[in-house]
Amino acid sequence: TQLLEQSPQFLSIQEGENLTVYCNSSSVFSSLQWYRQEPGEGPVLLVTVVTGGEVKKLKRLTFQFGDARKDSSLHITAAQPGDTGLYLCAGVRGSTLGRLYFGRGTQLTVWP
Amino acid sequence: GAVVSQHPSWVICKSGTSVKIECRSLDFQATTMFWYRQFPKQSLMLMATSNEGSKATYEQGVEKDKFLINHASLTLSTLTVTSAHPEDSSFYICSAPLRKTGTNEQFFGPGTRLTVL
After folding, report:
1. CB atoms within 10 A of CB A45
2. Secondary structure of chain B: what % helix, strand, coil (to 5)?
3. Torsion of Cα atoms, B58 then B23 then B109 then B106, to 10°
């Protein structure tokens, strides 16, 4: 069973549309990270959220950490073809140098 | 952000041979590194945790005699796939956490594409 349930698994949209990706769990995380990965490359860290209720913005991307630190969301406004990629959420439980628990990933394709 | 490198970026080998993959933290020290395996369009699967100066910790179902891990220094971990077979073909990625107060930001290498013929 997956500790972090990420949805949707696949998302195919037109340029200019908005979208939201969700990561949910019944477990509490000390922090949660969002990564973006392109084919043939390693994941690149987008953001880390630590505090319950925290909201962080990165240009057109908005990240939110749930109040109870069990869930998170990524919202993209006016998606562009350059946003295409695999988005991964990953949580840390306890230790600040502990393993990451990954969601299944969301493969986003934005068509021009 | 911190930089993690991997070498080689891709390798093709014959069935039965062994392949070594290196993971280096270039501008920080890492007492712990993680090794992942990834299939196309899927998430990362943790294989093992590499610990400097001690034995690696393997995830359930990962054969430690097949996937040998050596954390030789504070900046280098190696993964050796012994007697590789076609089913070992995959994308292997390492990561290293950067010690920062209150968070666990991990930085990933660019990955190694292994193809076993």
Report:
1. 18
2. 5, 55, 40
3. 60
* B18: number of Cβ within 10 Å: 12
| Cβ–Cβ gap A31/B103 under 8 Å | yes
**Which ranges in chain A belong to alpha helices (H)?**
none
* Contact call for A42 and B104, based on CB within 8 A: no
Each of the 112 residues of chain A gets a pLDDT tens digit; together they read: 678 999 999 999 999 999 999 999 999 999 999 999 999 999 999 999 999 999 999 999 999 999 999 999 999 999 999 999 999 999 988 765 678 999 999 999 999 9
Position B97 pLDDT exceeds 80: yes
Give the residue from B100, B38, B3 showing the smallest Cα distance to A45.
B3
Return the SS3 of A59.
coil
Q: Contact A13/A110 with Cβ under 8 angstroms?
A: yes
User: Shortest Cα distance from A17 to chain B (angstroms)?
Assistant: 22
Q: Calculate mean pLDDT across residues B81-89.
A: 96
The predicted pLDDT at position B96 comes to: 92
Q: Rounded to whole angstroms, how far apart are CA atoms B66 and B59?
A: 13
